[in-house]
Structures are given as C-alpha cells and as structure tokens.
Amino acid sequence: MKREHLTASRILRAVCLLAVCSIMVGAVQAAEYLGPTAVVASPDEKTLYIVNTDARQVAVVDIASAKVVKSIAMPAAPTGLVFSPDDNTLYVTCAAPEGTVAVVDVKTGNVVDSIAAGHSAIGPAISPDGKTLYVCNRFDTNVSVIDVASKKELARVDVIREPTAAAITPDGKTVFVANHLPLDPADAYDVACSITAIDTATNEPTTIRLPNGSADMRGICVSPDGKYVYGTHILARYQMPTTQLERGWMNTNALSVIDAVAKKFVNTVLLDDVDLGAANPWGVTCTADSKTIVVSHAGTHEVSVIDATAMLEKLLAMPEEKDADNPGLYASATAADVPNDLAFLVGLRRRIRLDGGGPWSQASIDDPTANGPRGLVTIGSKAYVTAYFTDNVVAVDLEPKLSNLVNSIPLGPKPEITEQRRGEMLFNNAQICFQHWQSCASCHPDARADALNWDLMNDGLGNPKNASSMLLAHKTPPAMASGIRPNAEAAVRAGITHIQFAVRPEADAAAIDEYLKSLTPVPSPYLVDGKLSESAQRGKKLFDDEEKGCAKCHPAPLFTDGILHDVKSRGAYDRRDTFDTPTLVESWRTAPYMHDGHYTTMEQLLTEGKHADAHELSDEHRKDLIEYVHSL
C-alpha cells in the first residue's frame, strides 16, 4: 500500500513550510556544505540558478561578476529546477518523504507557493506551453503530472524504477524519464535499466530498454531540435569475473541515444578511452544548435564534449550485419558492436578536466579544485558545471582549442573537509582506481546497490552474487553474502585492493569507513504520515510471532542476527548452502532479493521461494507481512 497522495496533515505541513521558507528568503541557510547539484540559466542567459542540496537553498549567480547575489532558502533539500516558459517562475523540486515543488517568483526571488509531489521529488520538466509540470517521484517510482494553474496533481504515471531525471520534447508530446536502476532478476542473462517515454496526451508510458548491463542512470536530455534523447549511465560488464580492469573489463561509462520521434533505442556509445576510464557520467545537455553534447563525469571530474552531428552520422551509417570487406578487428563492424567499442568516439569527443589539466596527481585527490561535477547547462560556447564536493561552479570553454579555459565560480567559502566528507569524496572518486574506470559508487550508487550480480574473487570463481547496500554495513558483520569478510572494515580495504586494483594509504580506507558509518535510512514510501499503515501494523504482529519466526533471524533494531543460515536458497553456481542474513532496513529499495538476486519482488520471494514457512501464509497475511517489511 502506497502513501496517500494528499492528506490534511500534509496540507498543513506545506503551509507551515511555506511560511518558514518565506521568512528565510535571501538568507544563507546554515550548513556545513553547500552541495551544488543542478543548474539552469535564466532566459536572458545572464544569471545562473543553482541547487545547493546540502544547504537547502538555491543560489543566484550573476555570470558577468561571477558572484552569488542572492540565496533562496528551500523547505527541504532541493534536487532540481526548471524555468516556466514565461520566464517569470522557477519550479524547484524538494526531496522529502512528502516531496514538494517550491514555486519561486523570479522577479522578487521569493518562494510564493508550494505544490505537493511524491517521495524524493526530483527531475522536473515543464511543457512548452507552461501548463503542465512533470516531477519524478524517485522512491514512489512514478511521475506526477501537475496542472500549473490549479497546482493540483492530475495523475501519477508509473515508471520502472527510481526515476531520477526527465526531459520533454520541444513539441510537448513526449516526456522522457531516466530510470536509475534495473528491475530484473539479477541472475538472468539480460539485466538493464530503461528509459520511459510518456505520451503527454494520454499519460501512457512506453518502455525503452537499454543494453544489457545498463545501470546507475543519472541524466537525460532532449536535443533542442527534438530529434534525439541522450541518457547517461554505466554499462557494466557484470558477467565477467572481476579479475582485472583494463579495457573496461568491469565497468564502462556510456551515453545512450534514443530516437525521440519513434521512441526507439538507436545505440549506446562508450565515453571512455581505451586505457583511461571516464567514470560515473552524470549530467548531459546540448548546445542550442543541437550540434554538441556535453556530459559531466562525477567520478573523474571532467566533461566530455561530443560532436553530435558526426556521432549520429557514424551511428546511423553502421550496418546491421557484417560486411566481408570490414572484419571489424579493431573497430565496430556492425551496430551491435558499438557498445563494446572504446574507440568509437575517437576524433568526435574531447575530454576537458575541470581542474585545468596537468598530470593526474595525489594533489588533485587531496586538494581538488573541482570535485564531483553533476548538473550542467550551456550558454553559447560555454558550459557551466556544478561541482558537488567543492561548492563551486566551473565555467568551461567548449570551443576546440589546444588548451580549454576553465574558470571556477565559488558559491561560498572553501569547504573544510571533515574525515566523513573526505570518505564520501573518496567513495565517489574514480581517480583512486587503476586507469580511472570506476569508483566505489559505480557498483554502490548513493552507497546502496546497483541491482547487479558480480563475480568477486573473494570466495572463488564462477559464483556471482548480488551487490549489497552499504547502509548499516559496519554494524552488521560479517560482510559479503558468503560472510567471507569478518566485517565492513576488512571489506573496504579488500575492495580498494581487489576491485579498484589500487594501493592506497590506510587513511583513505579509514575515511571511507567514517562515511559509510554515517549513512542513515531513507524513510520508507510505505509509511503513512511517518507511521506504519494499518496493514503494516498487522504485518508487524505476524513478523514478531514466534511461530512464524521472522524476528528470530531478523531481530530489531538492525533486523539481522549476523549469522549465516541455510534457507534453501542455494543456486546452480553456488558452492555453499549458508549465507549471511541481510538487514531488512530499507529492503523496500534493495530489490532484487536473496544473495543471487533471483526475486524482483518480496511477494515473489514469499510465494515462489523456499524461504521459511512462506507457503503457510494466507494471501492477506502475506500482503500484511510484506507491507511491514517494506516499511522498515
């Protein structure tokens, strides 16, 4: 049972938040870090509006003076923003269990209204006529369709999983939505995330599946000419044993191309070089003429500048079948080869480092000038990129030159990096990895899991297991599904050595420990006004019932006994019967389930699996039990 869309308490809360927000407009809300994530330019291209997620504010930057001229406080952590077509209003999504959209009067810089949205609202898009607003409700796994005039929700459109970004075509006929993670059995042959295309006339969704291994999708944009959609994601080689990193053996970093008119997948190109990864692609945008695509790389702190015209010509010219005169020994011979071709964009793409270039060094890790680029916007021949960890915006000259000019616009004082924050930076930093192919966050986005099975070498070859969330990892030893690591501390150090293929100072691992220990659960979307629903309350009684025995292996408050058990889940490739008991906290977001990710839903697990005494539950009891577990 999902939460009610609107309740009396929610309306009251929104009114109170609006009042508080209005009082705080213009004042910088106290925060240790700003955390800039998203950015838009004013229609006259003289001003930048920047979401500072950590500080719960929107910063207004005058481009000419490169200074912050105003800060607008938000009622909750802002995640995205979009201008109305009339240029007078800014809509800012704010993430909370009961998400909102803050309505900002651009002329006064005041928050003048609030619109109800869903859990962890993010990725707003607005129709060209300004009448309809679309908001991604990440943890409700749907998109709100909002009438701007009445500020009422007209519908919610279900998508695949964790929508994180949306973009609308210039004709207003289709909204394209980026689904962050796959929703497939992880032990299947094909596991991939998708793009959802929503017909704005009917609100009917169409699923556009991406290539096998696609995950961690972050950004999406529609070219200004309305012809193509571009989405950024990782293309994981999860079916390979994790024995090396060269040539993208484990993770590659990709841009997928969709035909916006036909709503069909075109192809996926890799953003890496043969011997240098471009980890964690995040934001994506186009120049006004649609001729250039710009992608930010959150793991390697750079941008890719791609000749869109030349790339599309090359993609569309690729044959479907091999030509005898082109064996394709060192390049793509067919369209199907492109997602494996690390050289496809050679000559069509430039990589521009946001730290100004020079040799990669320890200094760029310890004292970075720009770290964690995420959102970006283009104005003429420049791109403006938000750097999440260094609290600045970087202006990048996109013109092809021997040396591209990169200038930093500080959004506040240089942040003082605590041990916890340094650990978060390292967790998301692919510079510590051999050849920069991946960061810890590549397989653990937001320190959770990528929904893929990986064949790690810690317990032998050929027995892949589902990636785990890092939430509570340090409180719930042992680590790994097979319990092969005694605790999370050992797992962190082994991961640096055997997954990043790096030798790093002990201080780096210790800092990552501190970051992971700081993680807190996100309130479940199954809660109602922050409390268990009636169904979940009944489910709790079943869970705690000694005869049912759920709480015996999953005791509160961590909901794990830390013991390896045999629950008859051994798969075809396993060499053992017993597996670590996982915490059930945040289980609503950790599908697929079991050590091999065999079940995509908890209902499947309790009906098809051999887990405990699931088959003895009535349908109603099973529903209540699942409701409770999903509420943790």
Number of helices: 11
Major beta sheet, strand line-up? 1-2-3-4
> Average pLDDT, to the nearest integer?
91
Terminal Cα separation, in Å? Answer: 14 Å
How many runs of DSSP E, i.e. beta strands?
32
Which regions have little confidence, pLDDT < 50, spanning 5+ residues? 1-30
Shape: globular
Main sheet attributes: strand count, strand direction, barrel closure: 4 strands, antiparallel
Secondary-structure-derived class: alpha+beta
Report Rg.
24 Å
The proportion of strand residues reads 25-35%
Helicity level, as a percent range? Answer: 10-25%
Provide structural commentary.
The protein has 11 helices and 32 strands. Helix 4 crosses helix 7, helix 6 crosses helix 7 and helix 8 crosses helix 11. The N terminus is likely disordered. The strands form 9 sheets. Strands 1-2-3-4 form a 4-stranded antiparallel β-sheet. A 4-stranded antiparallel β-sheet has the order 5-6-7-8. A 4-stranded antiparallel β-sheet has the order 9-10-11-12, with no helix packed on it. It is of the alpha+beta class and 632 residues long. It is 16% helix and 30% strand.
